[in-house]
Amino acid sequence: MKTGTFTCIRCGLTVSVLAPGNSRRNHCPSCLHSCHTLDHVEGGVSECHGRMAPLSIAVRRGGEWAVVHRCTRCYELALHEISEDDNQLILMRLAVRPLAEPPFPLEVFGDL
């Protein structure tokens, strides 16, 4: 397993590839951004190297949380496991965003 570091493409933090629990990390624990290095559609290495911005949270079947990233350059979506030292405030903001900013006016519930 690779145990090096990478520099966050957004905030510049030097990040260890090895996350707590000996899992491999591919995003910054501070701002949750990543670099588009894997082609999740066709497999293999991506030549895009755009910034992967955290878009949302997904919950897998086993109950584990994952960050949904979208590339700011090619718009490809990717799902990445969270690490126990990821920024909990940003994770919660992503999780409640659909409830805090619904795509319809909340006044429609008054008419039901």
Mind explaining what this structure looks like?
The structure is a single chain. By secondary structure, the chain is mainly beta. It contains 1 helix and 8 strands, in the order ββββββββα. The protein has one helix at residues 88-100, and strands at 5-7, 14-16, 18-19, 23-24, 34-35, 51-59, 65-71, 77-81. The strands form 3 sheets. A 4-stranded antiparallel β-sheet has the order 5-6-7-8, covered by helices on one side. It has a two-stranded antiparallel ribbon with strand order 1-2. Strand 7 and strand 8 (77-81) form a beta hairpin. The protein is globular and about 55 Å long. The mean pLDDT is 89.
Helix content: 10-25%
Strand order, sheet with most strands: 5-6-7-8
- SSE order: EEEEEEEEH
Q: Roughly what is the average pLDDT, rounded to an integer?
A: 89
Total strands: the figure is 8
Structural class: mainly beta
The number of distinct helices, counting runs of at least 4 residues, comes to: 1
Describe the secondary-structure layout:
Blueprint lengths: L4 E3 L6 E3 L1 E2 L3 E2 L9 E2 L15 E9 L5 E7 L5 E5 L6 H13 L12
Antiparallel strand pairs: 1-2, 3-4, 5-6, 6-7, 7-8
Structure summarized in a few sentences:
The protein has 112 residues and is mainly β. Helices cover 12% and strands 29% of the residues. Strand 6 (51-59) and strand 7 form a beta hairpin.
